Amino acid sequence: xxxxxxxxxxxxxxxxxxxxxxxxxxxxxxxxxxxxxxxxxxxxxxxxxxxxxxxxxxxxxxxxxxxxxxxxxxxxxxxxxxxxxxxxxxxxxxxxxxxxxxxxxxxxxxxxxxxxxxxxxxxxxxxxxxxxxxxxxxxxxxxxxxxxxxxxxxxxxxxxxxxxxxxxxxxxxxxxxxxxxxxxxxxxxxxxxxxxxxxxxxxxxxxxxxxxxxxxxxxxxxxxxxxxxxxxxxxxxxxxxxxxxxxxxxxxxxxxxxxxxxxxxxxxxxxxxxxxxxxxxxxxxxxxxxxxxxxxxxxxxxxxxxxxxxxxxxxxxxxxxxxxxxxxxxxxxxxxxxxxxxxxxxxxxxxxxxxxxxxxxxxxxxxxxxxxxxxxxxxxxxxxxxxxxxxxxxxxxxxxxxxxxxxxxxxxxxxxxxxxxxxxxxxxxxxxxxxxxxxxxxxxxxxxxxxxxxxxxxxxxxxxxxxxxxxxxxxxxxxxxxxxxxxxxxxxxxxxxxxxxxxxxxxx
Length: 508
Ligand code: BES
Ligand code: MN
Ligand code: ZN
Hints:
single chain; alpha/beta; Leucine Aminopeptidase, subunit E, domain 1; Aminopeptidase; binds ligand BES; binds manganese (II) ion; binds zinc ion
């Protein structure tokens, strides 16, 4: 998609389609008003007929509006003007793009960034509204997301469903063009990171194996000079004592890999922000095998890994002035003659022993060794991202990722980033009271903690490997993909992670 920034009068735009907002009760946005004037109340008259009332989700496509130079005008419902906040703005833009997709317009001129979008109160005085940078960057990300297609395995109907190739984003003043261009650059980088994460996750598990993920990471390292990629094989992991990680891959024909992606944008000796992503390319459950219903969705058990790779891509494209390391432990969890038995005890890289009571709680087994491994980078903060527990889907559904941390300031930074990026998380407690649930009579700990508080006990397990650092865990079991008729990866939480990293540049 080609994005450009412009300023100028709506009626003078010679484009295939101009997009403007309409509020509830037929209240016109600024640009809708000037088109109404130029067209001698054409819009007012149409609205009187009641085909559109301005509710969010509504739209009306008009052709050859008198007094204007464009062939189409798309009116988009924006709800009540006073209620327009970040979440509603995102819905409005999504709706506009989805409607544009149904037309045969190849380009469109959008005036939606002129809308006044309320910022949450806590952003403080002078920041009552979202700024132009935010509105334009969101527009770019949302359009990339809405136009995303995954059809590489189709032999028919492969052509893109939409003809849209160019989006022109209008700003109210020439002075805003530079801001707009920055928003486009950053929005595209994030959009590209999200698309990469979605692509990797949507791939079938016979193609997207641990070795495939390692190859893709290397490819990223080749295309971005600032990213150095190294991959450890099983022999190297064995040497490091990663008995916990290797206990998961031993039941699969696919060898495990441990990927490190080091992005250097900051000073050489500056501590990096480390991201660790769960990369189980298929999770059958192992000997504690899963029921067969919807088991195909366990190809998405590498969405944490995909989000880390996508984030490294975005951050390197943006050239952020910080250091970031992505670590991806990747395995396939299969039942086999060599697979782990429930009751087996393994020694992790940290030296702590683990009784594997359920081979389906494998995510934490690979993450704990990857977290210990990450100590060598001396992280400023360390965040792991994982499709870790079905319990998280029950607790928070598909709207919020679960967040647990040993440091409240870090948790707040991540929550704020999610809020700003429209990719939210919600914090759960990580109190000591939960720790005893993973006691084992035979080893230092068990890998499961019973039915109660499954998301928390999983984080309790990980917390035993991250004591030295400011650490947070993001459970994306509910947010990483959608099921049903819209089945597909979402690319979350790439926007939240990138925002967290952008915020670190401004502060330090
Ligand atoms: N990958 C799954 C978690 C999962 C399940 C994510 C369903 C999204 C949808 C993870 O490896 C797993 O199987 N977790 C178990 C843990 C349990 C055995 C303690 C779970 O959540 O059932
Ligand atoms: Mn599992
Ligand atoms: Zn899993």
